[in-house]
Amino acid sequence: MDRDPSSAAQDYRCSGLTYDGHKGTDFALPDRAAMAAGVTVRAAAGGVVKGLRDGMQDNAPLSEVRGRECGNGAVIDNGNGWETQYCHLKRGSLRVTDAQKISEGDVIGQVGQSGKAAFPHLHLSLRHNGQPVDPFDPKGSDCTTVPSDTLWQDTPPYRAGGLIAVGFADHVPSYAAIKAGDAGRDTLSPDAPAMVIYGYSYGTQKDDVLRLSLSGPNGVVIEKDVIMDKPQAQSFRAIG
Fold it and tell me: Can you spell out the DSSP letters for 92-123?
């Protein structure tokens, strides 16, 4: 969730694991293969379904989702001014109905990529009396200190960035193949046209260094430090 009121972006730990105006928490899948396999979304808290939408295509062009950026999803009235919203669910996966009373842990649907979503993920928004609340830091404390009070039963660990996947290929894969989850090869034939190693990362910031190294029985075959030129939610680089 973006805490910075300016055009910049800052999360609750003073880092850039968010973007300008973002009003929720994202839970990303590694690729669309994981989305196709199915990852269940359950209710964080009980309440009554006050709105829902299903039927939107996953990974649709942005021109088709204007005004429906949340994609397929549901809004739950949790009572006492609290509500939760679940966005970008997979088409046809919703398992709740309008005005249905649900309990904590009930299945809402599956993680998808509907609406304005560059990759498969669940966008979870929490609001109190209409105002966004960061479940990692509901009191809005100074981001230089780790919040002592959160709204999670088990607070997810904070990782400002890292690797989603690494793999080998016989050519530089397309970004579409990386995001689909079918770019890597378990083995390469001796007569393969090339040997390429790629790294798929998240949360990179400007001037971060991604080191790619390929070693064989006789030592390092190729190694390169790639300096990232801008902040990116997800990115990939390859050498070979």
Answer: T-----TT-EE-TT-EEEEBB-BSS-SSSEEE
**Dist. CA 233–CA 203, nearest whole Å:** 5
Tokens of residue 96, six digits: 């709740």
Q: How far is CA 191 from the centre of its chain?
A: 37
Q: Which of 107, 121, 116, 123 is nearest to 57 (CA)?
A: 116
Whether this prediction's pTM lies above 0.70 is answered by yes
Tell me the per-residue pLDDT of 51-103, one tens digit each, with 9 for 90 and over.
Answer: 999 999 999 999 999 999 999 999 999 999 999 999 999 999 999 999 999 99
Q: Where exactly are the structural domains of the chain?
A: 25-132, 162-239
Distance between CA 75 and CA 77 in Å, rounded? 7
For 183-199, what is each residue's pLDDT tens digit? Answer: 988 888 889 999 899 99
> What residues does 89 pair with on adjacent strands?
72, 111
Fold held by 25-132: Glucose Permease (Domain IIA) (2.70.70)
Strands 72-79 and 162-169: unpaired
